[in-house]
Amino acid sequence: MSGVTGGEDKEHRNGEENMAAWLLGIKTLKIQPYHLPALGPHDVKVQIKALGICGSDVHHFKTMRCANFIVKKPMVIGHECAGIIDEVGSHVKSLAVGDRVALEPGISCRQCDLCKNGRYNLCREMKFFGSPPNNGSLANKVVHPAYLCFKLPDNVSLEEGAMCEPLSVGIHACRRANISPETSVLIMGAGPIGLVTLLAARAFGAPRVIIADVDDCRLSIAKNLGADEIIQVSTNIQDVGEEVVKIQNAMGSGIDVSFDCVGFDKTMSTALNATRSGGKVCLIGLAKSEMTAPLTPAAAREVDVIGIFRYRNTWPLCIEFLKTGKIDVKPLITHRFGFSQQEVEDAFETSARGGTAIKVMFNL
């Protein structure tokens, strides 16, 4: 029992050992004991009740890496989560045992210039659930700073609380791009992030939103979620020119902001060419570390290119949108699984296959 806190010892004696889903190798997940760090004075212990699978989790599962983040040792997976406070640190005043909370998964240093200037999502010392080498939150319980746990109103479920994490990406993108009731929006990609960006753009007041994708199943979901127009595109870069015309005709007026939620040469080329002069292109999807795209003609038309990385200070607004009904994330949850060895494996295979799966959710 070395390295286990006294609290863990007590739980172990009670037969309540904390278990977690550990990524051990390519497509190899095992539910094994997870000994938590000691509860600090400003921490809380949370019993995880809902956790969604993210595209980055699937990358880790399939390849043991996501972009430059490489899994080099066994790691607890998962980061889109919500749960119930099980224990509070001695200095925690804002939360109490039994509170239902959504967890923001990244712990920044709070000391560097970026953190002090409010752009903490760019902190180089960020410790993010389930991003190597940091353990994630697909576990019975986790320890987390209280300031990153946000209390859920009675009319917002734990599953919706877990959906605050992907929704935050769309909210942060809409803030960065200054989406308003005067902004017409194009979204490239109708995967989970494209769909939450659609919901966020609507909540920010965008009067007209068009979404393009290669998959007609995803497009029909986008239509049901409120896209004004859906456009099926090809994977062939030669088709960009005619597809841009089709998208612009469907919008009927200039496209103020385009969100590329994919990050391929073709999607970025389409976004840059379709956006009106003086408009903005926001790159959300990071599929490739390098891409070839027509920047020069876009720059000559003063099209601004904006990058985003994760999110910052988004949970309160997400929760407000969910509470008031301005955003409904429930239709995005397509599959649900429990927390057994077989179900964990099945859930990740389901998410990795794609198809009709948008958000795969664990109920613990």
From TrEMBL:
<dbReference type="InterPro" id="IPR013154">
    <property type="entry name" value="ADH-like_N"/>
</dbReference>
<dbReference type="GO" id="GO:0016616">
    <property type="term" value="F:oxidoreductase activity, acting on the CH-OH group of donors, NAD or NADP as acceptor"/>
</dbReference>
<dbReference type="InterPro" id="IPR011032">
    <property type="entry name" value="GroES-like_sf"/>
</dbReference>
<keyword id="KW-0560">Oxidoreductase</keyword>
<feature type="domain" description="Enoyl reductase (ER)">
    <location>
        <begin position="25"/>
        <end position="362"/>
    </location>
</feature>
<dbReference type="InterPro" id="IPR020843">
    <property type="entry name" value="ER"/>
</dbReference>
<dbReference type="InterPro" id="IPR036291">
    <property type="entry name" value="NAD(P)-bd_dom_sf"/>
</dbReference>
<dbReference type="Pfam" id="PF08240">
    <property type="entry name" value="ADH_N"/>
</dbReference>
<comment type="similarity">
    <text>Belongs to the zinc-containing alcohol dehydrogenase family.</text>
</comment>
<dbReference type="Pfam" id="PF00107">
    <property type="entry name" value="ADH_zinc_N"/>
</dbReference>
<dbReference type="GO" id="GO:0008270">
    <property type="term" value="F:zinc ion binding"/>
</dbReference>
<dbReference type="InterPro" id="IPR002328">
    <property type="entry name" value="ADH_Zn_CS"/>
</dbReference>
<dbReference type="InterPro" id="IPR045306">
    <property type="entry name" value="SDH-like"/>
</dbReference>
<protein>
    <recommendedName>
        <fullName>Enoyl reductase (ER) domain-containing protein</fullName>
    </recommendedName>
</protein>
<dbReference type="InterPro" id="IPR013149">
    <property type="entry name" value="ADH-like_C"/>
</dbReference>
<keyword id="KW-0479">Metal-binding</keyword>
<keyword id="KW-0862">Zinc</keyword>
<keyword id="KW-0520">NAD</keyword>
